[in-house]
Amino acid sequence: MIRSTALRVLLAAACSWSAILPARAQATVTRWAPPGISSALFESHPAFDPSTGDFYFVRSSREFKGWRILASRCGDTGWSTPVPPPFAGDGVEADPWFTPDGRQLYFISTRTTDGIAKRGLDIWRVARRPDGAWSTPERLPEPVNSPGNEWFPRQSPDGWLYLGSDRAGGAGKTDIWRAREASPGQWRVENLGPAINGQGHEYEAALSPDGEQMIVMTDEGLFRSRRAASGWRAREKLGPEVNVNATEVGALFSPSGRAFLFARDTRGEASGEFFLARDAGPVEDWPPRCPR
Fold it and tell me: What pLDDT does 19 receive?
């Protein structure tokens, strides 16, 4: 009887406290459309060069076709007219991502290779020379690339290279995989498994700078997963303030991991545009302002 009464008191207290505790704050989402970058076409997949501060992104048609990587420099009057980077090739190219030291950039391309026009998307890497210029890009070997398509290469702090692919052996139509170079030129690739991949499309996985969070882009919208000691936890769908019409793609975390840029098809408006999602808490001065 005493235990039963005590339990009822504890339950009542818990209910009263839950009634006055604040609800978990949702992310705030605002459009990020800097002059010179935003256009009547579709802008997506942002990347900031850690070495120069230049802004790299993808511009495509309003229908999200014909992807091309462009770069813009911040000047006294704002962002410069975007132009293709020096390493641009033929075909479609997208998904730029810088290593934190700014010495390498990963991207995907269908560029002509060894005189053969490619149809599938492969992962490429270009290194920065000591003088700051870009070297000749290199295509990553198999099994990182496959007979299928690869996209959105993103390296985590622990050395794994995350990527999306429609290669054979996945759980669904497209999956998130990760690759690691065990020895020079020798890579192993593994599927992230059911916590991240389902029967549909998982396209892209953006890693936070500390490697503790992942934004997964799918045909159902954006999901978040957090790292546990045993691996990645089951993904959880982000709220309606982020997921509007399941066209959200190309996430990029801020340095703190409390905010991220992404793109969305604005449907009925001018084009696809960038949006900034901020978690509750201190406001981070990011993306970089231009002019500074």
Answer: 38
Closest to 38 (Cα-Cα) out of 29, 28, 46: 46
Q: Do β-strands 68-72 and 55-60 pair in parallel, antiparallel, or remain unpaired?
A: antiparallel
How many helices (H) and strands (E) the chain has is answered by 1, 22
> Cβ–Cβ contacts within 10 Å for residue 224, how many?
19
Q: At 280, which helix (H) or strand (E)?
A: none
3-state per-residue secondary structure call for 137-159:
CEECCCCCCCCCCEEEEEECCCC
Phi/psi zone of residue 250: left (φ > 0), alpha (ψ -120 to 50 degrees), beta?
A: left
Q: In angstroms, rounded to a whole number, what is the distance separating the alpha carbons of residues 190 and 144?
A: 10
What integer pLDDT is reported at residue 240 of this predicted model?
A: 96
Give the pLDDT band (50/70/90) at residue 18.
Answer: very low
> What is the pLDDT confidence band of residue 25, given thresholds at 50, 70 and 90?
low
Q: Which residues contact 146 (CB under 8 A, 6 or more apart)?
A: 165, 167, 168
Could you count the other beta carbons within 10 Å of the beta carbon of residue 83? 11
The residues, ordered by sequence, that sit 6+ positions from 219 with a Cβ below 8 Å of its Cβ are: 200, 201, 203, 246
1 pLDDT band, cuts 50/70/90, is very low
Which structure tokens are listed for 239?
């709220």
Q: Which residues pair with 162 in a beta bridge?
A: 154, 178
pLDDT at residue 10 greater than cutoff 80: no
Q: 151, 121 in Cβ contact below 8 A?
A: yes
Residue 119's Cβ-side half-sphere holds a number of Cα atoms within 13 Å equal to 2
